[in-house]
Amino acid sequence: MSDVPPTADRISAYLRRLLPRRRADGHEAPSLITLRRFAGPAAYVERIAPVRVAHLTDLHVGRITPMQVQRAAVALTNAEKPDLVVITGDFVCHSQLYLDQLEEVIRGFDAPVIGVLGNHDHWSGAAEVKRALERAGALVLSNQNTTIHLGHERLQVVGLDDAYTGHADRVKALKGLRADLPAIGLSHIAEEADGLWLSQIPLVLSGHTHAGQVTLARMHEIAFGRITGHRYVHGLYGSRSGEAPGGAVYVGAGIGAAVMPLRLGERAKREVAIFELGAEPGAFDEHHSEQAPLKGRKPSAKTAAKRAAAVVKKRERRERKAGRGGPG
Length: 328
Ligand SMILES: [Fe+2]
Hints:
The chain is of the alpha/beta class. The chain is 28% helix and 19% strand. It contains nine helices and twelve strands. The strands form two sheets. Strands 1-12-2-3-4-5 form a six-stranded mixed beta sheet. β6 and β7 form a beta hairpin. α3 packs parallel to α5. The N terminus is likely disordered. Fe (ii) ion binds next to loops. Fe (ii) ion (FE2) binds next to loops.
């Protein structure tokens, strides 16, 4: 059962009718998903031979996002022949009803997949989502790091658990990280990047904001910057110059949606981002250059406690529904 209120259902159904029609073969036009390409920070040059990382986020596999969109995202990613696919959370949308479809999507990637969880995964059942991802062959990093071999290259991947619901533990995630090997960071919430930069992780990939979904007249920066307090709303922020203690963070626009599928504005388009690690910034044309962070605002202790409590409440509700003896 979903936690989406009926009003949101009705709005979603209405907005879906406004979306472009699917083609006769049943596949949504690939142009609905934008491919954006960036060079990795200068810190990787001479430390790693060119490695192509595809970044997707916020798949939100479920009833709001058609499977045709998910399959188009997988096809677009595979066509780029990445060495690694990273996905930064919100694999599901309010429920565990679509875990089989999630497995199908993840199995579709040709390259190895590494992911971290987001708030929707915790709201829906982190253990169950993680198990589905693992069944599909993905590696899920929950405040952990790993070293992967990509041809002759070795790359460390540091994965933070979801900061929105209070599950991120940077100290734990960095344990055993080697200074002599390059590393990238994954975090659903982009604001965690600042802390990872201090530990010589020059690039962090993130999600959560869906680029605001409506980016006309910079509405996304107003909604997610001023109102929800995000410093990083969409795209590339920070510095790729390689000068410590700075770093770069990329906030992907995401593939799916949690409530409304509407996306308006060029920046808001569903997105796969390709990072060419080992390439010098400026080596090729990019969609945009590094942006200055917004002012942002840290969530208050009360807000953080409320967000953490929501995970517990939702779990208790699931347990009640399943008749497994949760509190009544
Ligand atoms: Fe999301």
